[in-house]
Structure formats: C-alpha cells, structure tokens
Specification:
Length: 990
C-alpha cells in the first residue's frame, strides 16, 4: 500500500516545545486523548479567506490541541499526524539539539471533518521537518537522524524509535525534510544547504555533500542515492500520473526583478541553481548546463505540495498541484500543461487572505477529497516577512477546504492507495508494454518509467523504439528508463536522438544514459560527430568521472564554435582545468585584443581571467592591457573592474602598478573604476595616490568620494578638503545615492584637526528622513571630546522627538555624553523612548486604515522622490541595490507587514539583508550587508553602496547586528494621504 504523500515546510519553519505564546512559559499537555469539541467553525473564519465559488473553509483543529503546526500526513485509518514547532528559534533548536518539538495524532471520531481528539504521539524531537506514514510506521525527520516511530502496544504513543540513517546536518532549516514515498515504493527525502549530509552505506563508504539534494532510499534506509542536487532549498516533491517528479524550491535564483522561488521538474542526475557547493561535487554526474525552472515566482516561500487525486473538486483541479506559500499567505493551484518534454504552469490563487498572521506551511488531500491546510501561525520571524513587533498570539491551526459541502458520501474517493500501473512496476510489465503509436502516450510514459525503476534489460528494444515517438515527454521517459534498462546496444540510438530535435530535458536524460552506458572509445567517437549537441555531450562526459580523458586541444578547438551551447560547454570545461593555464594566457591575450567584443566573448574573457587569476602570465597580460591607451577606455575599465572580482590576496604587484597608472591618467571612467577597485580590494599601497585625489577640488565628486572611501579606514582623520567634500554631498541638493554615501563616510570619520563644526553638518541633515542619526552618531559623539556639542545634542534630541528610536547600545553611548545642562531633557527623552517602544503596536495600527484607497501612480512618485526609497530599493531595473528588491513585494508581504517594515525597519529583516559589523585584525571596523557571492567570499556593501571584498584571514570577528541600514521615520516626511498612496503603490507590485 502506498500512502498519500506527506507534507512539510522548509523555508519558514522552526521547532517545537510547547509554549504559552502570551506568557512565554512552558505548558504541559496530557498524552491521553483530549476532547476539544469547541473546534466548530470559527466565527468569521470564512470571511477572512477568499476562495473560488462553491468552496467553503472551516477551522478543524487549533490550540490547545495543537500549536504551530508545520506539516502533516494521514495514515490508512484517516488519522492525522501533525509535526508542531515549539515556536522558538529554529536555528538554535537545530544547532543545540534541544529536543523541544513533537508530533501529535489527531482523530475525527464522528466523521464530521473536525478533529475532536488529540494525543501526543512522540515528543522530544529536534525539529521534525518531514513525516510520512507507511505500513504501521511513521517515518520522521529528526536531524541528524531519519527515524521511524511505532506504537507497538496500542496506547496511542510511539514506544519504538528506529534510526534508519544518521549524518544529516542540522545548523539551518535546510536540514532533513520533505519525506514522501514515491510510486516505486522508495522513500524520497530532501536536503538543503548549508547542512548537507554524510551518510554511511552498507559497504562502509559515505555518500556526502554540502549541496541541497533530492535523495532516495529503500524503506529500511538502505541503498541511499542522490537523484538531483544543487538546491539552496528544495522543499517537497510530488509525483505526476506519468511519473514525473515536481518539487517546490526556494532560492532557485538570487532575487532579481522580483523572482526567486520556483517549481522544478526533477530529473535523475539533474543539477539546479543556486547552491555553490554543487560545483565542488565533482564525483557526481553533471550534464553540463543547469536545468531551468518549470515556473518561477517572487519570494513566496513555497512549502508543502500535493497533487489533487480526488474527483470532488471541479474538473479544472483534477491532478492539479496545490502549493502552500508561507510568505504570500495563500495556497495556489498549479495546472500543468505540456511544453515539449516538460511543463508550463497555469496558476490560480486558490485560498488567500490579508491576515498577516496566517502562514500556510502545508497542504494535503484527505480521503473525502477535501484539502487540509496547515497554518503554522506567526512564530517564525527569522528571515521571513512577518513582524516581530506585534508579538501576536497567533499559534496557527488546521483548516479544511471543501467543495459543495452538502455532497453525500458517494462523492468520496479513496486516495490513500495508488492503483496506477506505476505504483507497482512489476504489474506494469506483466500487463504488457504498449508499443503502438495509437496507444495512450500518458500510459506509455508511465509504464516506461516503471520499467526503468525495475532495471529490466528485456525492455531495451521497446524503449529504444520509443526514442522516435512524436511526443517529447514519451521520448524523455524512454531516455530516463534506458539509463537503467539498456546496454551498449542503445548507444547509437541515444546519439541519433541527441542529434535530432530535442529540448534541454531530453538532452539531459540522453546524456545521463550515455554516462551510464558509454565507454571512452564510444565517447571519443561521438566527439567527432558532426552535430554540435553530440559533441557537447561527449565533451561533458569525457571531462568527468569515471572517464576524465579529455584533452586540452579538444576543448580549445571548440571555444569559438558556431554553436553557442558547444562554445559555452568548452569554455566551462576550460575554466575548471587549472592545469591548462599554459593554454589560457594566449587565449586571454587574443580576446583582449579583439575589439569590439560580443557579449559572449566578454563573458568568456572575464571568466578566463577569474579562473586563471593566479597565473603570472595572465596577470601580466591583464596589467599591460589595462594601461595600454591604444585600447578603448571601456576595455581598460572592464579589465580593472575584473581585477576587483578576483579573490587572489594580496592583489598582484603588477595589478597594483596598473591601478596606480590608471589613477593618474585623464580618462574619467578609467580613474573612477580604478578607485573603486583599489577601495574594494583594500590596496593600502595606493593610499597616497588616493589621498591626493581627494584634495583635488577640480575632480568629479564621485571620484573623490570613491578615493576617500578607499582610504578612510586607515586614515580616519578628515582633511579640510575631505570635510568640505562630504558637506557638499550630504545636503538635500545632492542625489540620494550621494547623500547616503557621504553620510556613511561621515560616520566612519574623525573631525578635521583644524575644524570641529557640527552646526554646518547638522543644519544640512536636520529633518532628513533618508539619513539615519545612527549613521552619523559615531562622529557626533566625538564633536566635543567626550561629550556632545550643543549642535550635536540638539540634532540627536530632535531626531528622537521626531521618531528615531536608538538601539540599546546607542542609548547607552548617548547616556554617557549627556551635557550637564541636558539632564532634565534627557529624562524627558527617556520617557518618550520608553512610551514609544511600549506603543509600537499602536503605531502600526495608526497606519492600518491607510492600506486602502490610495493612488498607486502618485505613490510611485513619492517612492522615488519624496520618501527616497529608490535610493536603496530596486523595482524592475530601476533603483538601488542596498535593500531588498521590491519588484513584486505586494505578492509576498501583507499590508500590515509593509507598514511595519517601513515604520520599524529593524523589527525584522528580509533574508540576505542582515546588517553585519566586521572587525579586521588591524582594528578597522566595517558595517554593511553581506552580498551573496557564488564562491561564498565575504563582500560587504555599506550604506553608501560601496563594496569591500575581504579575505577571511583579514577578519578578527563578525557580528550580526539588530539594526537595519534602512532609516526609521521615513513616513514622517509624508502626509497621511501620501502614505496611503505609497502603500497602494507597494501593494500593487505583484
């Protein structure tokens, strides 16, 4: 019997001790059955949700029976097993192995769809981010273990725990999760990064990686293997009737233009973005290019996934996928349509709400054809757009969604046991293989995959025949199966299929089959095939294990092939072969001299320089070319900017000399890029040159600011010229980016010896909502030795009165600098700050009425101009890069959370935009957000937008700050109607 798939949550979940959310104290609950008959329809529940016509929703379980439910599964008796979070810090729970989580068993005894009884089935769990029922056992994730739990004495509690596998990482919510049984009877499970896994096989070897992956093993934990990899956060998978695997994947790509999360079509051997660790897993297969998404979304935090197998919902939902989307506060329906061998998704919002405390983490189908939706509540505030400040008591609950609730039991359909042929591969073989073109292609694809899972060599001839079928998805199924059911006899057919009209998914499956079947001789022969796709596959396979016989000439001869994909493959292989550096230098020289560049050639040049950056010949070619005025200024700036991207430390002497030369020459774009590179790479040898640029008042302010930024950490004392430069840029007449950059530099600086003049500075920034007093506070604290000057004191106190809320650390510093005459005013400020902190919820509430009725077009103007948001935030391809991309912010944040993030930006942080303070070994301190890099190098972006790349050996300590770079009080610059317009604009970004 194959049970329905379990559900789980992954991007936005935590752990599970049971806390009274209001009082913050631990509570206990009896382990025997508990009656909670009050779980009738919650008043107003339907009104809070929007559903398609004909659907109804009711809450069927809630506190105290359950708290913070994350995901669930059903057994054959329709009992619901629910994994619950403790509501605490999931990262700490995982890392410290505190075992405060539990799994409860809920029962609907009278058949009305509501769960009247609850019992703790298992407790003292680390963080159960996945569970599924099969044949009397509950399979559960209990990092670092995969376990089964059994109730052997019938008392309703699990009294037997068996560890099937151990070695799963547990530092992040990317640990073990997403358990489900496939139609082949194997257990599928997902892992994210950075946790990874190190799992011991029966032969004593280990299967290990730091890359997120889809794994598969037998029900007893044996024969563990990797199906697909490269994920930052693969959440859960589902199986289609034809056997394809679809998954929910968060952080499929770096956020850009409002896109981040994805539905993915998972193929055996597939490698997907975004995980950098996958690049180092050279012992695993790769077909070359990363596989694309099936559909891509904003940062909705895709979680639980289920395929609707019943026949109760309207026809458009039959076999549709339903996904729980934590950030978007909704459940979406995905109707998959064939697109070549893969799919496209027609999406429909199925269940939505404006309630900021509703966060669906799981969705699953019950045996009556209804859907169960788990709302995990509002406890998870780590990197997710839900507010810390509200301190809401929302502990979540379970909802049931029905269509036409009055329908009698004849409308029910048992879905716990799949009866399709693929659920039993052997039965598919016994029934005979459909070979006629008139045979239903869905059935053909389904049976082909079933045969592939049995590895039946007798099906080889028939499967080879399917490679010429007109339906791309049938050809894909045949290629997948041949990897396991064939011998070298299939190689000619696989190569012929590669040379025909194939899409990326078929190409991948054919290449994977060749990987399993072809030897060096066959692949070397394929390398001479006239079709570029066959050559591409041969290059890829000869480059990796188990063959690794590729020659440099075979790659170099194809670097400039007419076929783009073949060129790209050759380039990628060359970049991975550090032992071929002798071949790289002439190629770098050739590409530099080839002007103008096509975009692919420019990409190739940059990647070659980065790949062979430690090669002295390459370094010399780049340095000479960067100072060669016979090349265009654009070419030289390109080479200097590429130097900044390298990781070689210290920067080679020939490159330092080239930068010095570039800083002296007259071409503005080259000088500016040289200053940025010198600053970003912290080249102290150029400090004198950079300092001289700051003093030259005839130069462009942008160049002088970059030169000052590059030296300020080592020379914090401002000269008069530098002070005047910053004053000129910090004022309201300057562009927002320049004002932020100047303020950030002021905050890191010391007053000039000849002048300590706060009045001139404070007069420029007083009332400026874009520049936070937190940025300038370090400088102002030094305005009068150990105390405030009058101007500094007046500026800071006025800022507090206008809404600035100092951090605890800032408040303590402020307290020690209070002038004697300001003691009374300080006491008044203390009361103001305390009262404001106590009334933060009321502050949010005061703006809630402005969430409706605004004009988005006027709001766009206030966003870009009056509020200054565009200085840090990007919408589409316009705006800054310091804050989160807001292109589709309206799709992932509730209106109330939008207000909170503006009014109290330090209350919660978007993932990837935490503020860090880094102390270097020489004592210098840098503050900024960490810019994610493919190679995991440490790059900080400061409040002015400047980036500094740091060698880990330079760093003494790193501290995550609880202070956002976004200033508080931005809304104070707007009228209430303008705020209404701004909120309308942000909510319209979907």
């Amino acid at each position: 019997m194959i049970p329905t798939n379990s559900k789980r949550l992954r991007n936005c979940i935590g752990r599970n001790s049971f806390l009274n959310h209001e009082a913050g104290r631990e509570t206990t609950r009896p382990t025997f059955l508990v009656l909670f008959a009050l779980l009738s329809l919650v008043p107003g529940a339907e009104a809070a949700f929007t559903l398609p016509t004909g659907f109804a929703i009711e809450r069927v379980a809630s506190a105290p029976a359950i708290q913070f439910p994350m995901f669930a599964c059903l057994d054959e008796r329709r009992r619901l097993f629910v994994a619950e979070s403790s509501g605490l810090d999931l990262y700490e729970e995982l890392q410290k192995q505190t075992r405060r989580c539990r799994i409860s068993r809920l029962e609907d005894l009278d058949g009305d769809g509501r769960y009247e009884h609850a019992q703790v089935f298992a407790d003292q769990l680390v963080f159960p981010m996945g569970l599924v029922w099969r044949e009397g056992k509950l399979y559960a994730a209990d990092p670092p273990d995969l376990i089964t739990l059994e109730d052997t004495n019938g008392d309703g509690r699990a009294d037997k725990r068996t560890v099937l596998l151990t070695g799963f990482g547990h530092s992040d919510n990317g640990s073990l999760h997403g358990l489900t049984f496939g139609p082949d009877g194997w257990l599928y499970l997902t892992m994210g990064q950075p946790d990874g896994y190190k799992l011991k096989r029966a032969d004593g070897t280990f299967l290990e990686s730091k890359s997120g992956a889809l794994l598969r093993c037998r029900p007893d934990g044996s024969d563990i293997e990797v199906i697909a990899r490269g994920f930052e956060n693969l959440v859960e998978v589902e199986f289609l009737p034809t056997g394809e695997i679809i998954g929910t994947d968060n952080w499929f790509s770096f956020p850009q233009a409002g896109e981040r999360d994805a539905l993915v079509h998972l193929l055996e051997g597939g490698v997907y973005p975004l995980n950098a660790h996958a690049k180092t897993d050279t012992h695993f297969f790769s077909s070359g290019e990363l596989l694309p998404p099936l559909a891509i979304y904003p940062a909705v935090a895709l979680s639980g996934l289920v395929r609707y197998r019943g026949d109760v919902f309207p026809a458009r939902f039959r076999d549709a996928l339903f996904s729980a989307q934590f950030n978007a506060r909704k459940v979406a329906a995905h109707r998959l349509q064939r697109l070549g061998s893969t799919f496209r998704s027609e999406d429909e919002d199925f269940l939505t709400t404006d309630d900021p405390d509703f966060h669906p983490s799981d969705v699953l189908e019950d045996t009556d054809g209804s859907l169960l939706v788990l709302d995990t509540g509002s406890w998870y505030v780590h990197h997710c757009p839900t507010g810390r400040i509200r301190k809401t008591s929302a502990v979540g609950g379970i909802y049931r969604v029905r269509f036409n609730p009055g329908r009698d039991s004849n409308g029910r359909r048992e879905v716990l046991v799949s009866k399709s042929a693929i659920a039993n591969p052997q039965s598919a073989i016994d029934q005979g293989f459909p070979t006629s073109p008139a045979t239903n292609p869905d059935e053909t694809a389904r049976v082909a995959r079933a045969l592939g899972r049995t590895g039946d060599k007798g099906a080889e001839k028939t499967l080879i025949g399917l490679l010429t079928r007109p339906e791309p998805y049938v050809r894909l199924a045949a290629a997948e199966a041949l990897a396991h059911c064939s011998s070298t006899n299939a190689i000619p057919a696989l190569i012929a299929s590669l040379a025909s009209d194939t899409d990326r998914f078929i190409e991948h499956a054919l290449t994977y089959a060749l990987h399993r079947l072809a030897d060096v001789r066959a692949l070397s022969s394929a390398l001479e095939h006239p079709h570029p796709r066959v050559q591409k596959a041969a290059l890829t396979l000869l480059h990796q294990v188990p063959h690794e016989t590729l020659t440099a000439n075979a790659v170099l001869n194809r670097l400039f092939a007419e076929d783009e994909l073949l060129r790209r493959t050759a380039r990628k292989i060359l970049l991975q072969r550090s032992d071929w550096s002798a071949h790289a230098a002439p190629l770098v020289q050739f590409l530099i001299a080839k002007e103008p560049h096509t975009l692919p050639e420019a990409d190739t040049l940059r990647e070659l320089i980065l790949a062979f950056q430690t090669n002295h010949s390459v370094q010399l070619i780049v340095a000479n070319s960067a100072t060669n005025t016979s090349f265009s200024a654009g070419r030289r700036a390109f080479l200097i900017e590429t130097m900044a991207r390298t990781s070689v430390t210290p920067l080679p002497a020939v490159w330092v000399s080239a930068l010095a030369h570039a800083l002296r020459e007259g071409e503005p774009s080259v000088r500016l890029q040289a200053a940025r590179t010198a600053g970003g790479r912290r080249v102290a040898a150029l400090d004198e040159t950079m300092a001289s640029l700051v003093e030259q008042t005839n130069l462009a302010p942008e160049l002088r600011l970059e030169a000052l930024r590059a030296t300020l950490g080592r020379r914090p004392r401002l000269t008069v010229a530098a002070f005047e430069l910053l004053l000129a840029q910090v004022g309201p007449q300057s562009a927002p980016g320049s004002r932020l950059a100047a303020a950030e530099l002021f905050g890191r600086a010391q007053w000039p010896d000849a002048e300590r003049d706060p009045p001139r500075l404070t007069a420029l920034v007083r009332g400026d909502r874009l520049i936070s007093p937190s940025t300038l506070l370090p400088l102002l604290l030094r305005s009068e030795g150990e105390g405030f000057s009058v101007a500094a004191w007046n500026y800071v106190t006025e800022a507090i009165q206008q809404g600035w809320q100092p951090t605890e650390k800032e408040w303590q510093l402020f307290r020690t600098r209070v002038p004697r005459a300001g003691e009374k005013q300080f006491q008044e400020l203390t009361r103001t700050v305390a009262q404001r902190a106590a009334s933060q919820r009321e502050q949010i509430d005061s703006y809630s009425e402005l969430l409706a009725g605004g004009d988005p077009e006027r709001g766009r103007k206030w966003f870009s101009e009056k509020a200054g948001c565009a200085a840090c935030h990007r919408v589409g391809n316009q705006g800054g890069l310091l804050g989160p991309d807001l292109t589709k912010i309206g799709a992932i944040r509730a209106g109330r959370d939008l207000i909170e993030s503006i009014v109290l930006p330090s209350a919660t942080f978007a993932q990837g935009y935490d503020t860090f303070s880094v102390t270097l070994r020489d004592g210098e301190e840098l503050t900024g957000i960490r810019v994610r890099q493919p190679d995991d190098s440490l790059v900080l972006r400061d409040a002015g937008g400047g980036e500094t790349q740091l060698d880990p050996r330079q760093v003494r300590s790193t501290e995550r700050l609880q202070l956002s770079l976004m200033p508080e009080g931005l809304l104070a610059a707007l009228t209430r109607e303008e705020i209404r317009d701004l909120l309308a604009y942000l909510q319209s970004l979907k």
